[in-house]
Amino acid sequence: MDDLKYVFTYLKPYRRDAIAAVVLVFVECVFEMIIPMLMTGIVDVGVPNHDTGYLMAQGGKMVLCAVLALITGLLYARYAARAANGFGAELRLAEYRRLQGFDFANLDHFSTPSLVTRMTTDVTVLQNAINAGLRPLSRSPVMLGMGVGMSFLLNPTLALVFFVTAPVLAVVLGLIVTKVAPLYNKQQRAVDHLNGRVQEALTAIRAIKAFVRGDFETRQFDTVNEELAGVTTETFRHAVLNLPAFQAVMYTAVVCIMWYGGRFILVGSMSVGELTAFLSYVLQVMNSVMMLSNVFLLLTRSLASAHRIREVLEERPELDEPAQPLTKVPDGQVDFEDVSFKYARTAQKDALSHVTLHIPAGATVGVIGGTGSAKTTLVQLIPRLYDATQGTVRVGGQDVRRYDLAALRDAVGIVLQKNLLFSGTIRDNLRWGNPDADDDTLWEACRQACADEFLERMSDGLDTDLGQGGVNVSGGQKQRLCIARTLLKHPKVLIFDDSTSAVDTATEAKIRRALAALTDVTKIIIAQRITSVMEADLIVILDDGKVHAVGDHKTLLASDPIYREIYDSQMKGGEGNG
């Protein structure tokens, strides 16, 4: 229940609507409880005496109570909807804000499909709990208390039926909740699996089409779909037992009341009108108990969703902000001092091991190495996307942990290995680098990134719509737009993580020449092509997370066998020049 208490704190801005809804339910219950008492007078007085005036007066009061109950019910629906939908919106916004504050390490804890489910399905479950549960949760105790009280007033002996049926219903509900509670957790995990399969299939739809794997992917989807269907069926197979069990108890109680009530009527200790009213109250009490049991099932499912949402909301960023952060990066000097790093604390092997490296401000540094040599891991420590497990990373002479994160990342521009563009126009995407950039500034960045070559051929230019994820441009065009976007930040350190792999060598050479003109910017270039780094001031060769060699092109070519092997394979055609 602590999870529910925590999550429902986000209902606070809409508590007035929730309170109004509860009050309206109470008023509605009062009107409904008056109706059986009015009916008693009709049966016992109006009908035997053929008193039409009395019948009309009592009937009019019953109609008035029914209309007032209807009006209060409609008003309840309005306030409950405002409270539920407002609560859902607040909860989704809180989760999204928390996600934006996550570090890479936090995102490693949650899968993307799971986060999507927690922001959609789990929030909807809690929203429905308010929409569908607030009314019975408010109404049932009132109806239950008033119904039992009125029943005892009418006939205390017959009212003892509640003391017999209540324990039976409690045991049934307890058994159902105990069985169903773990199944709801299992059901939400199955939704995660389904979302994951859909997301992967849609992201990779071009590859699926190219390899004609549609049938295979359909079978994969069918597996997770059947998993969800099976878990849901099993869950509701137990949950629906609630209704027949309660109906069996209720109708058994009604039969017993009719049997003993009839005998009371025969001996004159009870009137027909009183028995009719008593039965109405019994049905209301039983329905109230049944609604309460449904609320318990709703809360049981809500507990699973509330726990999953709370995990996201209570996840704390792995990177701590300093108490008095530095807000200005003086220059682009970068230093690694005996740096080691592992992605998980429990990992047995470091991704980076004892890296010591000095990069002067304004230098151009190439980083090469085999696949899995931790090139990307190395540069991710500079803008503090991760914190070093051991050692110190410095930018501008200061430990990166002393900087304000936003200030540090503004000073370090990184063009990611995976080129990411967003839905919208080219102008919208470029302004991620500088929201205030005018068209002249945008075109200048595009010229430096050689993106102007294809932009000038587009009829809409900067207003060209990129489509979802930039589907309207090629891989090389994406890379150049991402480079232009990063250049607009005017960073002190500029990192290219294999960011020219999709452009031709002539275009890459133009981009290198444009970057060479940025003399006050430290440039770190991760590349597979030797031509991308051979003109760099410094070349770093990584091997299995360690610095294997450092030097310029001539030095490494003369002294390092790994560099010479890479050079020969790319520039001379490999062994034997053949």
Overview in brief:
With 578 residues, the protein is an alpha/beta fold. It has helices spanning 2-7, 15-49, 52-100, 104-107, 112-119, 121-154, 161-203, 205-210, 214-239, 242-267, 272-314, 375-380, 405-411, 426-430, 439-448, 452-455, 475-487, 505-516, 553-559, 561-572, and strands at residues 334-341, 352-359, 364-369, 390-395, 398-399, 412-415, 493-497, 522-526, 538-543, 546-551. It is built from 20 helices and 10 strands.
| Annotated CATH topology of the largest domain | ABC transporter transmembrane region fold
If strands are numbered along the chain, what order do they take across the biggest sheet? Answer: 6-7-8-3-9-10
H/E order of the elements? HHHHHHHHHHHEEEHEEHEHHHHEHEEEHH
Superfamily (CATH H level) name of the largest domain: ABC transporter type 1, transmembrane domain
Rg estimate, integer Å: 36 Å
Shape: elongated
Helicity level? 55-70%
Number of strands: 10
Low-confidence stretches: 574-578
Structural commentary:
β4 and β5 (about 400) form a beta hairpin. The protein has helices spanning about 1-5, 15-50, 50-100, 105, 110-120, 120-155, 160-205, 205-210, 215-240, 240-265, 270-315, 375-380, 405-410, 425-430, 440-450, 450-455, 475-485, 505-515, 555-560, 560-570, and strands at about 335-340, 350-360, 365-370, 390-395, 400, 410-415, 495, 520-525, 540-545, 545-550. The chain folds into 2 domains: about 1-315, ABC transporter transmembrane region fold, CATH 1.20.1560; about 335-425 and about 485-575, 3-Layer(aba) Sandwich (Rossmann fold). The termini are far apart. The chain is elongated and about 120 Å long. The chain is about 60% helix and about 10% strand. α3 packs antiparallel against α6 (about 120-155), α6 (about 120-155) runs antiparallel to α11 and α7 runs parallel beside α11. It contains 20 helices and 10 strands. The strands form 2 sheets. Strands 6-7-8-3-9-10 form a 6-stranded mixed β-sheet.
